[in-house]
Design a protein that fits this description.
about 220 residues, alpha+beta, Metal Binding Protein, Guanine Nucleotide Exchange Factor, Chain A, two-stranded antiparallel sheet, 4 helices
Length: about 220
C-alpha cells in the first residue's frame, strides 16, 4: 500500500531491491535512495479514489513506463511497464507500506479518516488546513461535482453512524428496561419474602402469650 492506503498494490511473489539502470532513473525522479522491484499479480493496482491519483508516461532506456502518483501522499508510488522486460514494476521504498504492522499503525493513527479510509494530513502540525480550505469554483463543473461527491460521502457516513448509534441506544435501553423490570420484580418478591418472615415471627411470638394468658384465666376461675 501507499502511505495513506489509497493505493493497494497486489504482487505475485516477493519484492526485491531494484538494481541496474531500470532503477536509476526512478530513483532520480523520486529522489529516494532505494527502490523495490516486483511483478504485479492479476489483481493489479487498486485505488480507493482515482481522483487522488495521476499517471504519466515516461520513455527511458527503450522502455515506456507508467508512473503513478498519489496526490494525498504527494509522492510517486510506483511505475509499471507493459510487454517484455524485467522488472515489470518499480516501487518507491519511501512511499509504500510493506508490513501488516505498519498498516495497523496507520489505521490507529489520529489522522486516519474512518470516513474516507485514508491517512490524511497531520492537522496538529498545520491547523490552518481546516481554516484555509478553499470552496469549489462554481465555474468548474468537474471540481464542483467532486466536492459534492465528497460531501455526499460525509453525509452518508454521518447518517450511517447516526443510525448505528440509535440502534445501540435502543438495544442498550431495551437491556436496561429488562434489568429494571427484573429488579422491580425482585424488589416486590423480596418485600413479600421479608414481610412473610416478619409476619411468621410475629405470629410465633404472640401464640405462647395467648396460651399463657388463657391458662392464668383458668386458674383464677378455679
Amino acid at each position: 500500500s501507499c502511505g495513506c492506503l489509497n493505493f493497494t498494490i497486489h504482487l505475485s511473489g516477493e519484492i526485491e531491491k531494484a538494481k541496474g539502470k531500470e532503477a536509476t532513473w526512478f530513483l532520480e525522479r523520486t529522489n529516494t535512495k532505494q527502490a523495490y522491484e516486483g511483478t504485479l499479480s492479476l489483481a493489479g493496482i487498486v485505488k480507493l479514489y482515482d481522483f487522488l491519483s495521476t499517471e504519466r508516461i515516461v520513455q527511458t532506456g527503450g522502455s515506456q513506463w507508467k508512473v503513478m502518483r498519489c496526490l494525498n501522499c504527494q509522492k510517486d508510488i510506483c511505475c509499471s511497464r507493459e510487454g517484455r522486460g524485467s522488472p515489470s514494476l518499480l516501487l518507491n521504498s519511501s512511499s509504500i507500506i510493506t508490513t501488516k504492522e505498519k498498516t495497523q499503525a496507520v489505521l490507529q493513527s489520529p489522522n486516519f479518516s474512518p470516513v474516507f479510509g485514508l491517512l490524511l494530513s497531520d492537522r496538529s502540525i498545520d491547523p490552518s488546513i481546516l481554516l484555509a480550505t478553499p470552496s469549489p469554483d462554481p465555474g468548474n463543473r468537474a471540481e464542483t461535482l467532486l466536492f459534492q461527491n465528497l460531501q455526499t460521502k460525509v453525509s452518508k457516513f454521518i447518517d450511517e453512524e447516526t443510525e448505528a448509534m440509535n440502534e445501540r441506544i435502543a438495544e442498550f435501553k431495551k437491556k436496561e428496561e429488562e434489568k429494571l423490570q427484573k429488579l422491580q420484580s425482585q424488589a416486590v418478591n423480596d418485600r413479600k419474602c421479608l414481610w412473610y418472615t416478619l409476619s411468621s415471627s410475629s405470629s410465633s411470638s404472640r401464640s405462647p402469650s395467648s396460651t399463657s394468658s388463657s391458662s392464668s384465666s383458668s386458674s383464677s376461675s378455679s
